User: Fold Arginine deiminase from Vibrio marinisediminis.
Amino acid sequence: MSKLYVGSEVGQLKRVLLHRPERALTHLTPSNCHELLFDDVLAVEAAGDEHDVFANTLTSQGVEVLLLHDLLVETLDVPAAREWLLKTQISDFRYGPMFARDFRNYLAEMDNEHLACVLLGGLAYSELPFKSASMLPKLHRSLDFAIEPLPNHLFTRDTSCWVYGGVSLNPMMMPARQRETNHLRAIYHWHPIFAGQDFIKYFGNEDLHYDNANIEGGDVLVIGNGAVLIAMSERTTSQGVENLAAQLFKHQQAKQVIVTELPKNRACMHLDTVMTHIDVDTFSLYPEIVRKDMNTWCLTSKKDGQMQIDQTNDLMGSIEKALGLDALKIITTGGDSYEAEREQWNDANNVLTVKPGVVIGYERNVYTNEKYDKAGITVLPVPGNELGRGRGGARCMSCPIEREGI
Assistant:
């Protein structure tokens, strides 16, 4: 059995986790989409078709594609996993003990496929056939969600991220995404692909409230050579970064963690929306955000189990040093300043590297794709007219679980 290990951002990608958008998108409406972290309502079938092109492009490059929905269905086939997920996702604290019990009893009767659809895609109070003595349903309108849909599961990058020989099960910042992590916790614990495999769970795998320690995978770049680059952003806090770094050092999985600070705004929600690693010595970035004078720190391990934190404020220099390079090649977002801003908004910098110098990106970002091409980077274009409305590109929509180092 091949090893669960992600050694870089650019080494040959071997296995990846995706989530095809489905039922959750049918529940997106103009009145709820912002609360569910979408800027717009997507055409559901077209988004699914675009995602299929993305998955097929990966397969054609020799990458094994795992689908979250299928993994969840197969995980629910394990009685202990089913019981844990029902108890965790339909908890007494979320619903109150009476309604939670009635709701769990109803869901427990569903087959695995139906239950997975509901857990991922949501369920309205009007769809519940049982009566409960609880006050909760009487306080809701029929179209309110008893289980909120999870349309952001599309972005498998954020919920969990593999760093060298282990995985972080990320405590997410936004309430609309926090339940996603439990699906991954169950899959990594019980699904036959992962159960009994030798990998570390760095962070986020306990039944705890992680308070201010938030981290999302879009802010974590495994740049290779024992280094990890993490950004503090709208959704990743210094507390989250320090907790993950401490675990990486404790398990001797990283030599250093380079940390930088992004502005906290929607246009650069995660580091990978403004910067990705596309070849051993090459990065794509949006220069309006990724600047020379960004606050930057280097975290390293000390002998007493503590961390050394040095402020360098030299992001590129820190990366060059970590990778043993004289100079990085930088490709900036294409077009004039209007076009570059538009293409960054449509994830021109959020490409997924399949192997050194070969990336998957949205075909609509013509100016940036042209720059990649001129710099010797091969772009495998995929359609993103619908998928891009979720503000995430090929890197956001993929969670590598097996990738070679550099």
About this structure: The chain has two domains: 5-67+151-403, 71-147.
